[in-house]
Amino acid sequence: MNIDRNTAVDLLNKYVVTEHIKTHSFAVEAVMRALAKRLSPQDVDLWGITGLLHDLDNDLVDWKSDMSLHGKRTVKILKELEFGNEAMYNAILAHNPATGKKVENVFENALYSGDPITGFINAITLVYPDKKIASVKVKSIVKRMKETRFAAGANREAMWAIENTGIKFEEFAQLSLDAMKEISDVLGL
């Protein structure tokens, strides 16, 4: 089982050409690492690298016309390269319910919830006058969750699912925001 981060970054750069998907992947990695630490004892590297690679197939498959393809191609690539393990593969599949893989454990739930919150926080950041993540407050995240017209495509059900891990949404929002703030330079926020 190879889960080396440098190799993971190389894979991301090889397979993902869409820049905002790359930055999204780094954001999900940061959130997953924070969740692994909070939900200890978890494998921080495994969780982080899974977050980093969860959208590896974004530019490879026409998943917009067949959503069930998204995740499956990533798993196929990783298996062929003997990179990762079954827990990683299952989490990647479970982050997209259209694959048919249901969320069955804390790791899978973390990725399922951690994926959409990064885009949601990004959208909130961009409506701030300075467009800086440092200005975003948790109360804004909680408030915007109730505004269904704001970032209407954000999977709120998935974000709320974090509570299945024993973490309240407000704590999750803070943890995710803090994780993203730590890499604001990478995110361009």
Notable features of this structure?
mainly alpha; HD/PDEase_dom; 189 residues; globular; 10 helices; 60% helix; 0% strand; Hypothetical protein af1432
Provide structural commentary:
This protein has 189 residues and is an all-alpha fold. The protein has a single domain (5-187), classed as Orthogonal Bundle (Hypothetical protein af1432). Helices cover 60% and strands 0% of the residues. It has 10 helices and no strands. The protein has helices at 5-15, 19-38, 44-53, 72-80, 86-94, 106-127, 138-146, 156-160, 169-182, 184-187. The longest helix has 22 residues, at 106-127. The model has no long low-confidence stretch (mean pLDDT 95).
Broad CATH class: Mainly Alpha
CATH topology: Hypothetical protein af1432
Helix-strand pattern: HHHHHHHHHH
What global shape is seen? globular
Give me the number of helical elements.
10
Return residue spans where pLDDT drops below 50 for at least 5 consecutive residues. none
Mean pLDDT: 95
Structural class: mainly alpha
Q: How much helix, percentage-wise, in residues?
A: 55-70%
- What is the annotated CATH architecture? Orthogonal Bundle
Question: Major beta sheet, specifics?
Answer: none
**Number of separate strands:** 0
Fraction of residues in β-strands: under 5%
Summarize the structure.
This protein has 189 residues and is mainly α.
